[in-house]
């Protein structure tokens, strides 16, 4: 869900911010049981791709409208409109919002417009890359380090989580025919379609609804159309899967997940990868 906007609809090349997290390859619970740090500064042996030019401007005209990132995995163009640094970090590191910790006070409030592009060699390499998205993420990581002086590290923390798993009767949804990605999350309803990891996007949307990390352990990769309708309950996260269902046309979110999607949430504690922001500055002038 994009900040300030409950709905983001994009084409294949347009990835909604709140989810970028879509796209959230780091969502699986993993790592050692004790906190451990992993440096993000190591570079591959071959010189990494980089943006040749990048214009960054603070968006002072409209900081409440729709936010989005447009980026094809087959060329070096990158456009971000009305986005926060936290949203850019989500996209660059494939890390859900709730797992990005620390940073300056303006991390999730000040918004920016970015236009960046690599040279023709970068375009050619990306057009033949087996994983162009990962290459673009590394390019954005380098840009954030250069222009925002972003310093961060990954570590594992033991946190309360919900594991999203397939219920005993199996999933109750169909593969999506949508080429792009659509996420519509608002009070009492979550709609997700498209993306190559739809269940990961659903887990992130559920995390926001429940106030606790939700980890996709369904093992279901690919594109699906998912619609979940439920009665909002501020006590749902504390009550867990056995929470009482209030009087309404729709059940609690825990019951709705089983009845409508054939999935369920299992409460537990486990090591969760998080990204800790060690420092960041307002971007340098163009």
Short description:
This protein is of the alpha+beta class and 286 residues long.
Pick out its properties.
about 290 residues; alpha+beta; five-stranded antiparallel β-sheet; about 20% helix; disordered N terminus
SS summary, helix count: 6
β-strand amount: 25-35%
- Integer-rounded radius of gyration: 19 Å
* Structural category: alpha+beta
Residue stretches low in confidence (pLDDT < 50, at least 5 long) are 1-36, 235-239
Mean pLDDT: 80
- Could you give the count of β-strands? 15
Distance between the termini: 30 Å
Q: What composes the largest sheet? A: 5 strands, antiparallel
| Number of spatially distinct domains | 2
The rough form would be described as globular
Share of residues in helices: 10-25%
Strand order of the largest sheet: 1-11-12-14-10
Order of helices and strands: EEEEEEHEEHHEEEEHEEHHE
Overview of the molecule:
- This protein is of the alpha+beta class and 286 residues long.
- It folds into 2 domains: 11-156 and 274-279, no CATH class; 158-273, no CATH class.
- The protein has 6 helices and 15 strands.
- The protein has helices spanning 85-93, 120-127, 132-147, 198-210, 236-239, 253-261; strands at 7-9, 14-16, 37-39, 53-58, 68-71, 78-84, 100-102, 111-117, 151-166, 174-175, 181-186, 189-194, 213-216, 224-229, 263-279.
- The strands form 3 sheets. It has a 5-stranded antiparallel beta sheet.
- Strand 11 (181-186) and strand 12 (189-194) form a beta hairpin.
- Helix 1 (85-93) runs antiparallel to helix 3.
- The radius of gyration is 19 Å and the shape is globular.
- The chain starts with 6 loop residues before the first strand and ends in a 7-residue tail after the last strand.
- Residues 1-36 and 235-239 have low confidence and may be disordered.
